[in-house]
Amino acid sequence: MYGDFATVYDGFMADLPYGDWCAYLHGLIQTRRPGARRLLDLCCGTGSVSLGLAALGYDVMGGDLSQDMLQRAQEKARDRGQRVPFYRMDMTDFSLINGVDCITAMCDGINYLTHHARDDFFRCAYDALLPQGLLLFDFSTQYRLLTALGDNTFADENDDSAYILVTHREKEGCSMELTLFFKQGEYYRRGYEEHFLFVHDPMDLADALYDAGFSQVEAFSFLTVEDIKPQDERIMMIARR
After folding, report:
1. CA distance 57 to 51
2. CATH number corresponding to 4-141+201-240
3. Where in the chain are the domains?
4. Which one of 19, 58, 98, 109 is CB 3.0 to 4.6 Å from 43, fit for a cystine?
5. Could you tell me if 219 and 117 are in contact, meaning their C-beta atoms sit under 8 angstroms apart?
6. 144-197: CATH, from 3.10.105.10, 1.20.1340.10, 3.40.50.1110, 2.20.25.110
7. What pTM, to 2 d.p., does this model score?
8. Which neighbouring-strand residues pair with 5?
């Protein structure tokens, strides 16, 4: 769960094409459930996808486990004049009073879950969706986690902060050690976080979705509607209730 990194997340992720991601999601939704409007965006982080989808006309609410991320999302919504509610939610243990047309979980939310927790998420999502509703999520592939990232060190800096990310190949996925530096006057404050991204096989995910009750499952190379390939770094999955 992100803590200190939430305050600088948007600055370091500024190159992510969130507009393209939202347009992609919009296209997938409208070709499979025309007229869908009510949407829950889980693992919403600082709200970039939530706010982007709201700008496309969806009635969006965002959910995340990190209170620091949610605070930043709420600030962004106020700054943009968008009325999008954000709630602290555990994606593996949630329920809704009123069902939604779609649930999204973008930017590796699934990779933070063990297989057991993943199954809990799928069951909660199924119960929260209206009939024929859609669950849409992406995930980093084994190729990305164990080969593209693997055992490596990454670093970046801007005017008031910097980070060093050390990644390690593990049996079940990729462990990450994130060291942060925040400029405070003439000095820097240091922060530290540990993360673990689990490898998930797309066929296993499909089986788990069917086991949860979903009637149809699709998988595509990310940002396309093409069949998945061995060297895809990110895959998009869609499941219909």
Report:
1. 10
2. 3.40.50.150
3. 4-141+201-240, 144-197
4. 109
5. no
6. 2.20.25.110
7. 0.93
8. none
